[in-house]
Structures are given as structure tokens and as C-alpha cells.
């Protein structure tokens, strides 16, 4: 499991490290500003995938459903620094600063080219992990303003994302599930992202599909894996994580139960 270290004396930054392959589904309640130090991270979303390596900088929007696969590279573990842009801090910032409304933002990962301001900002965060006393609130506020100001200087459209404080509303359940079935997360998260309570989600799902959510998800993930193995000539151990399974053994046994033969037969 990935180790996430946040110094108890500050709540704005933490350090993530992993010395072996690790996969997780994430949906954060805050925007996260990330610098990859070493290793690599693959981010899989409903309509796009990204591959990040050492030196890359990205911004994860809040409430953004993504699967992340982190692994060591070139003999070095995966390491990253994460700076959290919490909603309450953003609200405080924008009560004091004028914002510029541009076109509606897209809920997708933002990727930034190398820039001296980004380099200096993330380097300045590293000593925070050695704090032995509480980071003064006025310094945390200054650091937050610095991070937001840098984003605004290199991304002229960022205000439309950072000033969107709305929560997910009720959306089409079939449309959402068809795009996001490969994400392995609790049903209450699926319910939340479609703007429903868990009981309403289960009722609406059964009305739409006439099957339980878990059974439908398993079938969809197996069909996805079958398609990629046959059409793209990939090996089972290269696709099971992206298909939403936690380990190769579980994937192989579920595949055989569903199709009547193990996935390796498709490779042969």
C-alpha cells in the first residue's frame, strides 16, 4: 500500500511514496497540486489516460474519479509531493481577490509544462516534512496564496475551476456507469457522484439494468478485459488493474467463470 505522510503540524501538504506497484481509485474532496519526484504514475479516467514521470506537475480537480497506478522506475521508488487546495481556503482567498470567469471548466487533470515558479514552489515545500511544531496559520495562508497565484499566472483559465464550489448534482445513472464501470470503489461513492443516496442509487440501477450493481460491474469489467486482450494483443497481467480488479488471480478466476476459459487462452 502506498505510504502517505502528512506532517501533523501542517494540513496543506503531504508526501506520497511507494516502492512497488500500487493501484488505487481516488476521488478527493479538494483539488490536489502534485509534483512527481521519482517513479511514474498512470492516471486512468473515463475518456483519457495519462502517464506522468519525474519532474511532471499536475492538478487533480476535486470530485474527479480516477484510477492511479504508481510504480518505481529506473531503480527509484515512486515519490510525489501533494499540495492540497481545500475548498474553505479557496473561498477565503477569493473573497480577497478578484476572479475572472472564463469558459466553463472541464473536469479533467490539468498538466503543466516546466516553469521556474513551479520548481521553486515545490522545492520550498520539502522542508515542511521536518516541522517539529505547528506551522503558523499566517504562513500557511501565505503559502496557499503563493500556490494559487502561481497557478493563476501560468493558467489563465484556472479561476473557473477553483471558484466552482458546487457539489455533484443528480445525473443520468446509465451515462455515468457506462463511462466509469472500471473504477473499483464502494457503491456509496458511485451513488454520491451520480447525486443520489445509496438506497436511491440501488433502486434506480435495478430499474435501469434489472441486475445488481456489483454483478453488472463484474460483467462489464470482464468484457472490457476480453476486448483488450483480443483486439490489442495485451497480456492478462497488463490489463487486469485497468479493468478494475485488485489482483491477477481474482481476475483470472472470474474470467474463467464468466467465459468458460482462462484469459491466457486468448493470448495463445
Automatic annotation (TrEMBL):
It comes from the Bacteria. Signal peptide: none annotated. PROSITE patterns: HTH_ARAC_FAMILY_2. InterPro entries: ExsA-like_N, Homeodomain-like_sf, HTH_AraC. SMART domains: HTH_ARAC. Residues 171-268 form the HTH araC/xylS-type domain. One of its GO terms (molecular function) is sequence-specific DNA binding. The keyword Transcription regulation applies. Gene3D superfamilies: Homeodomain-like. Transmembrane segments: none annotated. Keywords: DNA-binding, Transcription, Transcription regulation. This is AraC family transcriptional regulator. It comes from Pedobacter hiemivivus.
Amino acid at each position: 500500500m502506498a505510504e502517505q505522510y502528512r506532517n501533523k503540524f501542517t494540513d496543506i501538504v503531504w508526501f506520497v511514496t511507494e516502492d512497488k506497484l500500487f493501484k488505487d481509485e481516488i476521488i478527493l474532496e479538494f483539488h490536489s497540486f502534485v509534483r512527481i519526484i521519482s517513479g511514474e504514475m498512470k492516471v486512468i479516467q473515463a475518456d483519457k489516460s495519462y502517464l506522468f514521470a519525474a519532474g511532471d506537475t499536475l492538478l487533480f480537480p476535486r470530485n474527479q474519479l480516477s484510477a492511479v497506478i504508481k510504480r518505481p522506475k529506473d531503480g527509484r521508488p515512486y515519490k510525489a509531493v501533494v499540495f492540497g487546495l481545500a475548498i474553505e481556503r479557496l473561498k477565503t482567498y477569493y473573497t480577497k481577490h478578484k476572479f475572472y470567469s472564463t469558459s466553463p471548466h472541464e473536469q479533467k487533470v490539468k498538466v503543466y509544462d516546466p516553469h521556474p515558479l513551479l520548481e521553486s514552489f515545490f522545492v520550498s515545500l520539502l522542508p515542511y516534512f521536518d516541522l517539529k511544531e505547528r506551522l503558523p496559520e499566517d504562513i500557511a495562508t501565505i503559502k496557499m496564496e503563493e500556490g494559487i497565484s502561481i497557478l493563476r499566472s501560468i493558467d489563465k483559465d484556472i479561476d473557473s475551476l477553483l471558484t466552482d464550489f458546487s457539489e455533484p448534482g443528480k445525473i443520468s445513472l446509465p451515462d455515468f456507469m457506462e463511462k466509469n464501470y472500471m473504477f473499483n470503489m464502494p457503491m456509496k461513492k458511485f451513488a454520491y457522484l451520480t447525486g443520489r443516496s445509496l438506497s436511491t442509487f440501488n433502486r434506480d440501477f435495478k430499474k435501469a439494468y434489472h441486475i445488481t450493481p456489483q454483478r453488472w460491474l463484474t460483467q462489464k469489467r470482464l468484457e472490457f478485459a476480453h476486448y483488450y486482450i483480443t483486439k490489442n494483443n495485451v497480456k492478462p497481467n497488463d490489463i487486469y488493474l485497468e479493468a478494475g480488479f485488485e489482483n491477477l488471480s481474482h481476475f483470472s478466476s472470474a474470467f474463467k467463470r464468466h467465459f468458460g476459459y482462462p484469459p491466457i487462452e486468448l493470448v495463445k
